[in-house]
TrEMBL record:
Superkingdom, taxonomy of origin: Bacteria
UniProt-listed PANTHER family: CYCLOPROPANE-FATTY-ACYL-PHOSPHOLIPID SYNTHASE (PTHR43667)
Protein name: Methyltransferase domain-containing protein
Keyword terms, alphabetized: Lipid metabolism, Methyltransferase, S-adenosyl-L-methionine, Transferase
Record-stated family: Belongs to the CFA/CMAS family.
Classification lineage: Bacteria, Bacillati, Actinomycetota, Actinomycetes, Propionibacteriales
GO-annotated biological processes: lipid biosynthetic process; methylation
Family matches, as Gene3D superfamilies: Vaccinia Virus protein VP39
Amino acid sequence: MAHPLPLRFTAFDGSASGPEDSPYRLHLATERGLTYLLTAPGDLGFGRAYVAGDLELHGVHPGDPYEALKLVQSHLSFRRPTPAEVARIVRSLGLSRLRPVAPPPQEAPSRLRRVVDGVRHSLGRDAEAIHYHYDVSNAFYEMVLGPSMAYTCAVFPTAETSLEDAQAEKFDLVARKLDLKPGQRLLDLGCGWGGMVRHAAREYGVHALGVTLSREQATWAQRAIKEEGLDHLAEVRHMDYRHVEETGFDAISSIGLTEHIGVKNYPAYFAFIEDRLKPQGRLLNHCITRHDNVYRPTGAFLDRYVFPDGELIGSGRIIADVQDAGLEVQHEENLRPHYALTLKHWCQNLVDNWDACVAEVGEGTARVWGLYMAGSRIGFERNDTQLHHVLATKTVDGVSDYPLRPTWRV
């Protein structure tokens, strides 16, 4: 059931509603913004108007609109208008307001229009989806993510832990769960800017290979590897994980890649991993999940502006497909609150570096990141989304080499 709007709403025609003393004000500044809202009800229309600057949110910084979004989502239930409501809108506003206008340039094509780029999760279409999100600007990501350049959930020993320390703890927790030792071989799938690869090489003396579909990430990572003097142990390649031919890895980490490969492709993905591991080798899969195992498409705003073709499902489905690929699941952990904290820090970084970020990528793109990160934080806080670690071994003839009790410390 919808409740009265908890913030002040004003529009270009002088109309207004909501409490005058609200600390937050939503201002519809243009007729184009109204058309966005009417022609794409829900989060897509809101996102279009906000990213274009036609819908202004006052009282919060655009790099972190968390407080206002949280207030609105606590009081409203968004739904599409009924046919009768649409008819009344048409009569009152006129048909001209219902003629779609071009969306902001930051918007990716719809799912149907992406068919021209190939079948969903084909090599070419996946490469384009990754390019869209991750090749925005390395300089922009450096400002938002911080020195770690880790674009995945950190692990906070305490709520007061810094983001950098929490990201280092994340990489080390993965390393401890994989029981990495000097001289071993690690494959990091979807390695991003090479944080796990460099951590494993530097701290554990592991020969680490990372692969990413983002050319910008690979270039940045290879430079960082060279600067740290890790060339003899670490390598990052710009390539699809499906093209990795080497086998016999002692460990494989997948940190934030599963969200991009498609739920229907899980069996093939985990079969690929099983084939690349040596007997008794370990897998650590780290990914965003839903709070249940019911499949539903990603919301329109996230699909068009953030992660084209991204898909989520619950940890139960992931565990089932890991097991069906022939791997033995040894441990599972939900780190949901940690991602809410991570997003809080990223938003603060965006706020602190707002002018430089806008100069680097434009205000529209910066608005996209602020809106999606603040909204995602709310999703993790409310248990709409979670973050799971699944640790598994390639058990052969009943031998897993997994100890009677875990040797890794929390």
